[in-house]
Amino acid sequence: MHKRFHKTLFGQVVIALILGVIVGFVWPEFSVKLKPLGDGFIKLIKMIIAPLVFCVVVHGICSTGDLKKVGRVGVKALVYFEIVTTFALALGILLAYALQPGVGMNVDPNSLDASAMSGLSDRVQQATSTVDFLLKIIPATFIDAFAKGDILQVLLIAILFGCAVAALGERGRPVTAAIDSLSHVFFKLIGFIVKLAPLGVLGAIAFTVGKYGIGSLKQLGMLVALFYITCTIFVVGILGLILRLAGFNIFKLLRYLREELLVVLGTASSDSVLPQVMRKLELMGIKDSTVGLVIPTGYSFNLDGFSIYLTLAAVFIAQATNTPLSMVDLLTILAISLVTSKGAHGVPGSAIVILAATLSAIPAIPAIGLVLVLSVDWFMGMARALTNMIGNCVATVVVGVWEKDIDRQRAHRVLNREVIVDLNSSAAEPLTQSAISTTLPEPMVTVPARA
């Protein structure tokens, strides 16, 4: 027997989303004070990400035993990221140029409030410096990477550490076993934390509606609507096609990840589900070595939703400020965005900062124009985070297929809801045929202890 809707995590998050919208509308001043609920939940998840990524990657490398394979997976992942990110950037430019969401606004750049950009200059310089970005991947100390929670730094340490342990052979076996046990402890801890997901979603949504309200969407509604439409086209069309070529269905994958999608929608942060997503992909039948390399790396190099945002917003600002764009300008936007979109995950206030960095490199577009999108950035952030997360999950499946690191039979059974996935266990529990036939109308992939 399955739990009733309101007792499942999925049901609780749905109820929290609805209550958050109601509270934000009815008591806007009170709802703004609920922001710490969302922030606290995300902080709880983030404190586990660094050690969990370390354990998963190290154990994955050690259990694989083939260091060349680890390097091959990394290279293939980066190639995939670059190709798909380019498609995302190009789609943003294409739809913005064709549908012209900013035409007719006739905004004078001199009339915009420059104070809104105060404090951005230093972070913009950091975001545009390739050398600084590369050096930033190397932590000051072993512990410093974990203290800061920088995923790329932790990933670098984990790869080096895993290779060293694997090279020790038999002498490294006790270390591998200990790290594997430690990772199970962290996953159990995640199971405790995600029970707070409905509370975090309630606080985040109530704050958003209470502070910004739907009224802020009136003037820029076309931009926000087009962004959501573009992300949908990208997920269903491009990612759906890629996943179909790999032998899987995008809608079944989205259904499998529905709890994570709702939490990301409510918190506008893909960080809030990173550990859960890694666990779900492993239980789906993808080797932990592939999951451990692709997902953390993708969070910095495969930001599909963010890429769409960059080019769409840049063209929108040009249109709104009556700045003519030639084909050379459009290609320049694409080229610059390919560089600035990388590593945005580690930059505070990344969306606005990276957009400012992109505009500063394109003289034709007034950089002050980014003030236009500030009021709706949170609403766009929801779609950004959702698309980023989906893109990285699809990337993991594709690389798994590419490297034959996925159990296809198990994956199809999980996606077809023929098994119940429990994230607190090491395996998926098979259902009997009678249970399948009698419970099919109800959601069959349940995650009792997480989002």
TrEMBL record:
Topology in membrane: Multi-pass membrane protein
SUPFAM superfamilies reported in the protein's UniProt record: Proton glutamate symport protein
Record-linked PROSITE patterns: NA_DICARBOXYL_SYMP_1 (PS00713), NA_DICARBOXYL_SYMP_2 (PS00714)
Membrane spanning stretches: 9-27, 47-65, 77-99, 151-169, 189-210, 222-246, 290-317, 352-376
Entry's localization field: Cell membrane
Protein name per Swiss-Prot or TrEMBL: C4-dicarboxylate transport protein
NCBIfam families attached to this UniProt entry: PRK01663.1, PRK13027.1
Gene for this chain: dctA
The family this protein is said to belong to: Belongs to the dicarboxylate/amino acid:cation symporter (DAACS) (TC 2.A.23) family.
Keywords, alphabetical: Cell membrane, Membrane, Symport, Transmembrane, Transmembrane helix, Transport
Described purpose of this protein according to its UniProt entry: Responsible for the transport of dicarboxylates such as succinate, fumarate, and malate across the membrane.
Species per Swiss-Prot/TrEMBL record: Aromatoleum diolicum
Listed InterPro entries: C4_dicarb_transport (IPR023954), Na-dicarboxylate_symporter (IPR001991), Na-dicarboxylate_symporter_CS (IPR018107), Na:dicarbo_symporter_sf (IPR036458)
